[in-house]
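Field log, afternoon session.

UNIT: design team B
ACTIVITY: writing a sequence onto a fixed backbone
BACKBONE:
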């Protein structure tokens, strides 16, 4: 890759143009970075925070990595970098060498991005109102270094409603020299009107696969055929970071890892849905309900998207290897019911980060799926 002033090796190649188009001298007080999960938004936001706090760069297009501010940032100790993430996402923060239940230091940030996370024991999945209030209240005090102060919130969907209301008040009257970096998969209307919207593009298939295969080669002992990488890449919607996270989890064979559990549950879910009218939806819901709800919903949505496409004479996007099964199912699927089921999945995804009674909701959805194939 040729080097130039605007190139940053920590940014995914498909996000380089987004970075290059930023006007660092006229950034707004709040930036809402949205796009598909697993494409590198978090790594982008962390590098942006570092660039905005850098005291040695003249252009801020690239952190100098030489100044004291960059050193503090790299070691996770910059006092003006405030990341708000739930406990389940703290492993994404860098230099987080945990011992027991030791919490990470404030300000640690990651260079890798799965736009997802694994969990430890029963870690909280929401950003607490106490953490949000503490961060907001601290804004009344000037920045420690006399420059910018960055608050990174990831993922914004994990904010509780009371925390979101606290955030909204600060966005309406932002403190001086304070920049909010908010990351979402889907744009929230109440937040959007108060922020500069940046859309993170998904890479084209060739570029995404090229980057992914290069990263896989850099991981010792991770041997996987290119064809398998391509299959998983398609199944996960062309999200390179998510695929890499999946491959690493599978390689580590950690049966208690939440992502590993979700991947295994997703496979079982696909096997069940391939049965069409013969699906044992009670059994399927029982076997998969411990997995990440959002992961299961995404799997269901991709399968149904392919089923809709095949039913209308198109080709599957996510599961091309299941073309024969999808064709057989499409012959017996009621298109009107299929559309209604798609709407149910879309509605469920709006609340996927705050689900109640996962098993009951999965039972309801899979039961509705079975009805697609009845007259």
């Amino acid at each position: 890759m040729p080097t130039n002033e605007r190139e940053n090796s920590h940014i995914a190649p498909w996000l380089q143009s987004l970075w290059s188009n930023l006007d660092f001298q006229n950034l707004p007080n709040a930036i809402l970075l949205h796009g598909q999960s697993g494409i590198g938004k978090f790594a982008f936001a962390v590098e942006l925070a570092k660039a905005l706090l850098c005291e040695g760069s003249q252009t801020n297009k690239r952190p100098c990595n030489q100044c004291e501010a960059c050193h503090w940032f790299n070691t996770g100790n910059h006092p003006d970098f405030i990341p708000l993430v739930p406990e389940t996402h703290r492993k994404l923060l860098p230099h987080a060498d945990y011992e027991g239940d030791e919490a990470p230091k404030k300000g640690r940030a990651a260079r890798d991005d799965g736009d997802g996370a694994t969990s430890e024991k029963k870690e909280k999945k929401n950003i607490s109102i106490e953490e949000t209030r503490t961060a907001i209240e601290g804004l009344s005090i000037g920045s420690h270094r006399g420059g910018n102060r960055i608050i990174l919130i990831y993922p914004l969907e994990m904010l509780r409603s009371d925390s979101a209301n606290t955030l909204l008040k600060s966005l309406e009257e932002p403190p001086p020299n304070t920049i909010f970096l908010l990351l979402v998969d889907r744009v929230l209307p109440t937040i959007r009107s108060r922020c500069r919207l940046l859309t993170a593009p998904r890479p084209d298939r060739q570029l995404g696969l090229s980057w992914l295969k290069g990263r896989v080669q850099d991981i010792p002992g991770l041997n996987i055929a290119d064809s398998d990488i391509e299959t998983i890449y398609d199944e996960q919607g062309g999200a390179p970071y998510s695929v890499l996270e999946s491959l690493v989890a599978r390689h580590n064979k950690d049966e208690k890892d939440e992502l590993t559990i979700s991947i295994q549950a997703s496979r079982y879910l696909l096997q069940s849905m391939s049965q069409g009218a013969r699906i044992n939806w009670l059994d399927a819901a029982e076997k998969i309900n411990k997995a990440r709800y959002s992961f299961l919903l995404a799997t269901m949505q991709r399968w149904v998207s392919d089923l809709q496409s095949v039913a209308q004479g198109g080709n599957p996007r996510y599961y091309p290897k299941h073309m024969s099964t999808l064709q057989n199912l499409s012959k017996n699927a009621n298109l009107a019911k299929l559309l209604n089921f798609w709407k149910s999945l879309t509605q469920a995804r709006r609340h996927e980060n705050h689900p109640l009674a996962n098993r009951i909701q999965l039972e309801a959805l899979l039961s509705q799926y079975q009805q697609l194939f009845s007259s």
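LOG NOTE: Residues 13-95+105-199 form a domain with the Rossmann fold fold (CATH 3.40.50.300).
NEXT ACTIVITY: expression trials, pending approval
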